[in-house]
Amino acid sequence: MYIPDDAIERLWHVCLPYITSIKTMIAHKHYCYKVAVSLDHKIECRVDDSDYEAMRGFIMNSNASHKCISPDGPVLSILIEPQSPWGNKIREILNGRVFVRFEEIMDVGKLGHILPVDHAELGDIDLIPHIFQLMYTITGLEIEASGMLDPRVSRIIDYVGQNLKSDITNEDILNLTHLSFHRTRHLFASETGIPLSRYILWQRLRGTLKTVLETGESLSRVAAEYQFTDLSHFHKAFKNIFGLNPSTFLTECRVVVEDDRDVEESVLNSGDL
What is the pTM of this model? Predict the structure, then answer.
């Protein structure tokens, strides 16, 4: 499977991958679609009033109330933007259903190791290709290179990435495209599969988490730097999109959000320099 050079960054345009061992879980729901797969055992899940047991993995619809447990080992979960290309394909797979077991859509015996057996010792950058491979197995879609995007959209993505800690105004965006705001929003959504405002929110949530993970700074201080009014504003946005409070992700989950040091080390080890 072809993975473009900028795939690591683009992964965070549309999803939040994380690894956790879920021994207890409160019922929750979230805006994102959810793909979850056990790494070496089975998952149990309660969705609304229905129980599902002994699953290798599942796909969960948006805003479905659920709680899952995985007492015997880790699970890789991927929360996916519903309006992204992956999200559109998952919508087709769900076909109006709230919940789909992997066993209904594939031969789970052929999945093999989703991540390397020594995944706990590897850096995020080493795990990301395996996440792409899993999503390709489920959806049949490969991630596209950003070089294929309309240059005006690429300029927006670059600008947003450089100004996440600043106020990004409509005028700022229109100066990059020289189009009306309506046409700019339509262009961005058609090229990327995600609305511009949602994209900016994803990147600010991602930037906040990444900075806290890398620096150990307080969540409230970092969230403010990324233009969240206060910690309550950040918690509300995070929980709406991802379903749980950010403290759970920071303390109980391994969030696969690459460390720049991992990227630099990977490049050095590849011999490309």
Answer: 0.83
